[in-house]
Amino acid sequence: MLRYIIRRLFALIPVILVLTFIVFTILSMTPGDATTIILGSDYTPELGAKLRAQLGLDRSLIVQYFHYLTNLIQGNFGTSYVTGAPVLEQLRPRLANTACIVAPAMLLCVSFGIPIGIRSATKPNSFFSQCTMVFGLMGVSMPIFWLGLLLILFFSVNLGWLPSSGLDQGVKSLILPSVTLGFNYMANIMRTTRSSMMEAIRQDFIRTARAKGVSEHDVIYDHALGNALMPTITIIGMDVGTLLGGVVLTETVFSIPGMGRLLVEAINQRDTPCVLGTLVIMAICVAVSNLIVDLIYAYIDPRIRAQYGAKARKA
Fold first, then answer.
1. Among 31, 187, 269, 293, which residue has the least CB neighbours within 10 Å?
2. CB–CB of 101/174 below 8 Å?
3. What is the pLDDT along the chain (315 residues), one digit of tens a residue?
4. 270: helix, coil or strand?
5. How distant is the alpha carbon of residue 308 from its chain centre?
6. Rounded to whole angstroms, how far apart are CA atoms 290 and 277?
7. pTM reported for the whole predicted model
8. Residue 166 burial by CB count (10 A; 0-12/13-18/19+): exposed, middle or buried?
9. What letter would DSSP give residue 30?
10. What is the third-level CATH fold of 91-257+264-269?
11. Quick one: DSSP state of residue 79?
């Protein structure tokens, strides 16, 4: 198992290499120049050329890229073109703000999506099941920015219960962004759990358990749930990356100073080190979440544990 974890961590290296090179290439091909944004109204060709030399923008793309990789290996994410501050210092508070939104949103997805999906699968023709199907369809169809605006209009503008932007009011400030971010993915988890659970309870071993007189509660939660959770866990792991993508819209709508908003601002300002630093951190978060999902697989399914054990013995 330890060797598998180490291999997965090393597999992150080519992902980061490809990601950073693609971003470098795309930003170099976009029209405009970072020096014109940095200097603003003070821009002159002479000052622009001098600033380009200071930032290393007068070098070739390959030279710039390898220079960035050399610094990244040493833990240096570079210096922001706009603020002049180290990128890592800018990312730390932003990452904390993003985690304050993503963690409750993920908790909301799992806490409500899985139980609702199980209940809907065990009573497939009930009124509750029909309502959850409508709810799931609405959840996967409604854009994040649109839902965020609706929640702001209802709970902030009309009722005045919750703040509409920022993180100044503590836990109350996290409610609307977390619900907005998690609503779509909760519906996705619910639908996946429902379909996989309905498939699991039709299997022969479930009919055998019922024929032996096992209670319905034990049939559902001891026999069927372990098999039905495998696709759901996959969706949860994949949703971490999707949540980090959705956080860009959520933080923009609610004016939250997180990584998503920093990414949008850095792209608009052609701040390449900030863009790359943000994407590298996001890529690491996605890779670690996928690794955790694989470990959860091994914990739930004894066949996977046996497979890891066999590989370890052969090695």
1. 31
2. yes
3. 667 667 767 777 787 788 788 877 877 777 766 777 777 777 777 787 887 787 777 777 788 788 888 888 887 887 887 777 888 888 888 888 888 888 888 888 888 888 888 888 888 778 887 888 887 777 777 888 888 888 888 888 888 888 887 777 778 888 888 888 888 888 888 888 888 888 888 888 888 888 888 887 788 887 787 777 778 887 787 777 777 778 888 888 888 888 888 888 888 877 888 888 888 888 888 777 777 777 777 676 666 656 655 555 555
4. coil
5. 27
6. 20
7. 0.75
8. exposed
9. S
10. MetI-like fold (1.10.3720)
11. B
**CA angle 292–294–297, rounded 5-degree value:** 110
Domain spans of the chain?
91-257+264-269
Structure-token match 């819209």, residue found: 249
CB contact set of 111 (below 8 Å; sequence gap of 6+): none
* CB distance 175 to 148 below 8 Å: no
Is the separation of the CB atoms in 222 and 232 below 8 Å? no
Whether residue 240 contacts residue 232, with contact meaning beta carbons closer than 8 Å, is answered with no
* Six-digit token string for 140: 């996967």
Which helix H or strand E contains 186, and what residues bound it? helix 171-200
310's enclosing H/E stretch is helix 302-314
- For residue 38, what are the contacts with CB-CB under 8 A and spacing of at least 6? 51, 81, 82, 269
Give the pair of three-digit tokens for residue 162.
Answer: 């919750």
Question: Rounded to 5, what percent of the chain is helix, strand, coil?
Answer: 80, 0, 20
Q: What are phi and psi of 79, to 5 degrees?
A: -120, 135
Contact 107, 181 (CB under 8 A): no
